[in-house]
Amino acid sequence: MTLSLPSSRIALQAKDNSLEALERAWRRVADEHTMIRRGGRITEVSPTHFRVRGLSDVARLGDMVEHRSRAGIRHGEIVQITPADVLVAPFERSGDAGVGDVVIDLGPFTILPHDSWRGRAIDALARPIDGGPHLAQGDPDEAALITQPPALARQRVGTGFQTGVKVIDIFTPICFGQRLGIFAGSGVGKSTLLAMLAAASAFDTVVVALVGERGREVREFLEDTIGPQCMAKTVAVVSTSDESAMMRRRAPDTAMRVAEHFRLKGDRVLLILDSITRFAHALREVATGTGEPPVARGYPASVFTELPKLLERAGPGAEGSGSITAIISVLIDGDDHNDPVADSVRGILDGHVVLDRAIAEQGRYPPVNPLASISRLAPRAWSDDQRTLVTKLKAMISRFESTRDIRLLGAYQPGADAELDAAVKQVPLIYEAMTQTPRDRASADAFADLARHLKPKERPHVSPQG
Ligand SMILES: Nc1ncnc2c1ncn2[C@@H]1O[C@H](COP(=O)(O)OP(=O)(O)O)[C@@H](O)[C@H]1O
Ligand SMILES: [Mg+2]
């Protein structure tokens, strides 16, 4: 029990009984958990990394290090260990490292999320970036409770809920604990759709990880698109494109840890990650820096083990806890749907929503392509009637889209094909009904809204208030 005495107390007692105190101090050193921090010195510096001698026997991969440079204290992470030295990737872009500088191993990096973090914006190392007060720290013992429950101890993915975004609620409804991807090229509407989904009232807590966005976009996203009302229950973890690859690589992990904190206390958590592609770019940058060979389009193999490792942590928790519903955006470079990151992520998710540039160009927002999008858990969210209706809607849309060219050429004659006639009449109305901007109010019942839109003339007396 005396093992936990601070060293200053040990020094005081040494006067009384120096031998006993010495023994206590020795036991403290021998105890793994109170191990004295070890230091080493920088031997080599490159633009993205530096090597440190003297830490190889205590260092573990992922340990945080403190680096005392001329410019002050900096932090980095151990990304490679050899018998001779360790490789450190700094979190700050301007490393200021010099040969001979002292580097201290601080052990594994832990963040201690606290309920009061809601409404705040933090960086990848969980430091506030919103100019607000100091962040309260949570329970250090909590991390041990967050180990992934074994597959069979997990709750099943829960029931469906309304996101308030009509095109999603009808064509790809989501269940609590589901992992859904939003796939599109840049500028098509991913971030806007994510922000609209973040406003879903079904969630107790929202965690937003913004990785690799431009700084200006982040402010817009948090202040305008998410808005002050939703921000009150939101923790934003931000790592912009000008930060180091190490920070961008760390941010999704930090966000997931915050989400796990709230899931543990029973919350229904929504985790939004924009975008997983930029996270993969950061993983690639760090891994190639350590000399890992590329296997697919410049991506080293470790990227494809990190992506599932992160996403597997979402989902329902153990019995009695809440759930993490994850919605992530996947950037399709050059609208190429065979990108290795997109391919790998698609296999891990329980559904994907595809946004189409051509639809956005027609001004139909959110530009969801209902024929290419699926939610694997939709059958749990739809009633039988709804499922039948959606199948019919999709058939109609498919008919409409496959005859678009013929109709443009003027070769369409009404009256020859009743099904096509119905599609030509109804599909533009369906499209119109699905249109929604972030400023439009969330839909409480998307199917009812659609029905109202399809039969406006059959409604007998529309009151002006109605
Ligand atoms: N639901 C929407 N309603 C109206 N405009 C939208 C909508 N979604 C996207 N946009 C338009 O598309 C632009 C790009 O959207 P954004 O979400 O930033 O794309 P991405 O994240 O895919 O790069 C927005 O600035 C906005 O003008
Ligand atoms: Mg975006």
pLDDT average, as an integer?
85
How many H/I helices? Answer: 16
Oligomer: single chain
Q: Give every kind of bound small molecule, once each.
A: adenosine-5'-diphosphate, magnesium ion
Shape: elongated
Uncertain residue segments = 1-15, 31-35, 462-466
In a few lines, what is going on in this structure?
The chain is α/β, with parallel strands linked by helices. The chain is 37% helix and 20% strand.
Account of the protein in words:
There is one protein chain. The chain is an alpha/beta fold. It has 16 helices and 19 strands. It is elongated, with a radius of gyration of 27 Å. The protein binds adenosine-5'-diphosphate and magnesium ion (MG). Residues 184, 186-192, 365-366, 437 line the site of adenosine-5'-diphosphate.
Task: Summarize the helices and strands and which ones pair or pack.
Blueprint: H1 7-16, H2 18-30, E1 39-45, E2 50-53, E3 63-69, E4 72-81, E5 86-90, E6 102-108, E7 121-122, H3 142-145, E8 160-161, H4 166-171, E9 174-175, E10 179-184, H5 190-198, E11 205-211, H6 215-231, E12 234-239, H7 245-264, E13 268-274, H8 276-289, E14 294-296, E15 299-300, H9 301-311, E16 315-316, E17 323-331, H10 340-348, E18 351-354, H11 357-361, E19 374-375, H12 378-381, H13 384-402, H14 404-408, H15 418-434, H16 446-454
Bound molecules: adenosine-5'-diphosphate and magnesium ion (MG).
